[in-house]
Amino acid sequence: MNSLTPSTHLLLVLATPLIGAVVAWVLGARGRHAVRQSAVVTAGLTLVSTGWLIVRYLQSPEAAAGEPYAVTTLPWLVSGIFDVRFSIGLDGLSLWLFGLSALLSLTAVLVSWEAIKERPIGFYVLLLVLEAAMLGVFVARDVILFYVFFEFTLVPLFFLIGIWGHDDRRRAAVKFFLYTLAGSVLAFLGLLVIVLWHASHVGNVTFDIDTLTAGMAAHPLPMNAEGGWLQLIVFWALFAGFAIKVPIVPFHTWLPLAHVEAPTGGSVDLAGVLLKIGIYGFLRFSLPMLPDASAVAAPWLFGLGVVGILYGALVALVQSDLKRLIAYSSVSHMGYCVLGIFALERVSLEGANLQLINHGLSSAGLFALVGMIYERFHTRSIVNLGGIATKAPWLTVLFMVFTFSSIGLPGLNGFVGEFMILAGSFQRAWTGVAPAFQSPFLVMSVSAVLGVVLGAWYMLWAVERVFFGTSRQPPHGPPVEACDLRWYETLSLLPLVVFVFWIGIAPATFLHPAAAAVRNASSAAAEAFADRMQAAQATIQTIAPTVNRVVVHPHASTPINVFPQPLPSQSSANP
Amino acid sequence: MQNISPATLLVLVPLLPLVGALLTLLLGKILRSRAHMPAITGIAAAAAVSLVLLASTSMQVGAGPSSGEHAEPVRPVEMITTLWQWATVDKAYTPDAGSAAAIPGTPIGELTTEMRPFSIPVVLRLDPLTAIMLAIITCVGLLVAIYSVGYLHDDPGYTRFFTLFAMFVFSMSMLVAASNFLIVYVFWEAVGACSYLLIGFWFQKPEAARAAKKAFLVNRIGDFGLAIAVFLLWMTYGTLDFHDTLSANGTILPGILGQTRLADPAGMIGGAVGTAICLLLLLAACGKSAQMPLHVWLPDAMEGPTPASALIHAATMVTAGIYLVARCAPLFIASPGALVMVSIVGATTALVAALVATVQYDLKRVLAYSTISQLGYMFASLGTGTMLGFTAAIFHLLTHACFKALLFLGAGSVMHAMGGVIDMRRYGGLRRLMPITAATFLCGACALAGVAPFAGFFSKDEILATLHSKAWPNTHGQQQSPATGHAHLHLSSFSSDAVADDLTADALIGLDALNCPDVWRILFFMALITAGLTAFYTFRAVFMTFTGPTRVPAEAGHHAHESPLVMTLPLMILATASLVLGWLLFSTHWLSHFLSATPSFALPAFGQTANAPVFHLDLAIQGTLAAAVGIVVAAIGHLGRRSDGPQMERFLGPLGALFANQFFFDQIYNVLVVRPLELLAMLAGIIDRFLVDGLVDFIASLPLGIGSVVRRLQSGVLQRYALAGVMGVLLIVFVLAWQLRS
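Output (structure tokens, whole complex):
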């Protein structure tokens, strides 16, 4: 088997779901069971193959050197100076998201086992195409290819929601599609500006992400009045695309609607993987290519992240639909990711990168379980449910595990990301900003920690109402007796539970492979932020020399004195 | 046994209950009514190992003080063992030049410019404080587990109970053995989760489910404080380890509570940040140890099975706050303002909870408020900031763990016999039906009330003596050493001579309050009154339950008899401990000597202090008098009377209503916190639906509206956006061309 080169291996992983989709289509004539069987086999094969590739990556010299692995580059649209390539490869930034996509695709197929009775061929074919697109978006190393995969995640999900969704599925599908597309078009325009700017300096129009990143460092987009603040404009264009995808408050309203109406399998993929593309975009494009603009925007997005955490949690508190509640908890949790990214501290960035995986596991698990509850009780209304624990103890146990993961119980995965993000944001507030900005940053960081309390509140409230107390008969549907997990449901969630514990107990295993990539992606922006803060402090001191004195000294015996000493920048210590 | 290292033994203490828990979970279906076997075996083995560790640590500390007066400073005993690296982020943080992250004794700034790794090892420690906590947790845990076999013998959740129980013993052992603040935080929440699941053990009962949620949420508020405290510690000290570590280049990285820092009088941060850290730690301790204002969850937590209440909500988990403050003693001593707050919170809680306990009818609630009150005692003692105070608090923690577990198990025995009825007005005169329960309960009650020679008498006396020595410092002249000229017992030494050069005045915020005798006099009298009230409510419960005409409620059915041996045996063992432990530890001075070898207590200021407790006859008389008054009043009101007759609180008038309603804490929280937050959430929900989403829909409708006005576009949605995209690209290209032209 050594003859299987990494590049071929990666291509095979990408091709497997597509081949499986064709097989499922062909087998469609034999009925629903044949289709779903082939889908499970395909997703399972893809997962095993992906896992094996990840193990190979971790042992490879490329991983140690921080270089892309399993790279395939083929000419695609090449004419004259125009050079679009089909270029894929795995690196530290994409590694875990790639694995997560494969893992959750199997979950998505399995949770649809009994739920999808109508038009199964179309459903499973779309689900497998979606898997291929999700895998592709994280390994694309070319802007056009990334964008193609990005759009290709939208189309299958649009149909999955629109055809197999619940009552208000049309509106949800259209809103989801238009909203995301509107943002992604803006992001694409922004990326085109980067490409053209680069082309204007080197003469040929390359779309290669690595080349562009290096090019933006050599000749950055103008960040001044003469240059029309072009870098900032491009940043906000990319922001439009990624912020809607994440979603960052206030661009989030498509999410609860889409989740509530989506079939369970669609929800699993949507919450587990698709939301992550937004944060991945910030790390892949915005921070390394537009460091100065990122530094300018960072304090605002730091604040927006905190607003997202609290706002999402507060709105979740008043939801009566269990699925909507979890959708808003996603908004809150993605707020942590935004906070972690734009705190621009190493600890918080690595935490945010891990939080992507953590949220993928916990929200996918919760959405899957809500789907199972709906199949049994035909309602998702929190007030109509009750006492499920007596009827389905193992379902309850799993729901508790994912709830604890979601509210950041130490020992489980959710805690690791949350804690590192918050530690990093405190670090930023403590020594990383000009003294004049210290108080607002501290207030924001403390507020973010309050989200931990609110998160426990709404989740435990829901658990209490839905699972505990006396058993209640839902108003619709036949009476439900004992109805614990079936084999395919257990199978769909067990791998997730394994990772929930594994990441919680030994997070270093997962932090380490991504560390160098995250550092490289963010170092320029962190440095730019440090420079900006120094400049800001200098300005403040010329305007009002006394401002520095007003700041509360955290250390009574030795006043805080970051400035005007040179601010330690993260990149200066890069190996 | 010779070749098993102490490190292995230390790891075994939490590991054995964990294995027990997992085996119980896996084999529960097969073992059925014997599902307790793996859990109890694991806990029993852990108890044996922890006693071995206690003995070996004690031998390491060495013999007790020979003269009893000024002992030689005890060499700190500490052993560290690292299990695995939890997380590492290289070069994560550069501490401030000149902050406490600087290594004591080196020129400031030399090592601070170096970036610190965010390095979190899963690391365990063994020192006297940990050893004694481990022994308490596993031994009391074992007795309660044995008792549970009888108590829960036909419960459908039998397997679940023992799984959670062993998980709790594991988490609690890890909490007291962890040597890193983040790992402490991890198990701080883990014990909370076990507590949540055990309070909600009978989840079909809505009250139990609600109580579990309330406990978790109130504890989360405390955890919020702990989290921020940990962040601040990380930023001021540049590490989260307790112990010193060796960095890659061979220099010693001082841990927050490591010996390098402890040897340096200026090693700890005081001032605003130090005080903030300590107050946040206190907030965390208040949550876990049910101190005001975060005590509201503990009375409701009595919805859980009684053995869980005995172990978690009386003997061990609720003492985690005491442990945390004691462990962080050096931090608190550098922040006198926070230290005095510990005492104020503790004494206030002790008094208020005791007042509430006097009018409760639910036996378990009486005991719950009593626990809150006794924990307040321990906090009051910790806040004195003297070695005597820390020793007294741990002493009381130890004796309290025995006699309060005993009382809870006794209450459980009563509840078991009465068919689940726990309202004291509905039964009476049970001493004839349940003689062993009655006798052992009486032992526990005497210990709680502080009747000599029961355990509580000695530990409570020590706490009163500690407070007294702060209130009337001159009368305790024998503890000050005229030979050296320093009043080492008192923190005034910090500002007066010892380290005055190193610490500026404002670095020790609240020092005045700490050394103001008037404050301590008030606290002393609060504690004394509490002692009287404690005796009153304890014996009120004894008299109501066990004396008077024999009455049993209808629910009891054929159950109304003495509990089986598996339940009474733990009662008898604990009763014996409640009888002898206090005198044993007090007369030998072993505990104070042993504890002083804990690194956290190895402060220079403690080194020469006479830390052996001295018997104060006058204080013992005062304490005993207070207890006697309480018992006599209880006897007048309740001895031999029908427990459903007229009650004493009719003399209290409106105060009785205040106490009965627990000072309206729940209602106040409801009005001040819960309702406003719910309103805010509702507002956010409305804004989300109508403003944020409404705006999106409005903007989305604009192109459609314009489109239909200008010209009915025949193309579909996708194409229109593609068109917009192309136009946008063209626009950008123009802009770019214009940019490049200049």
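Confidence is low (pLDDT under 50) at residues 66-71, 477-505, 712-716 of chain B.
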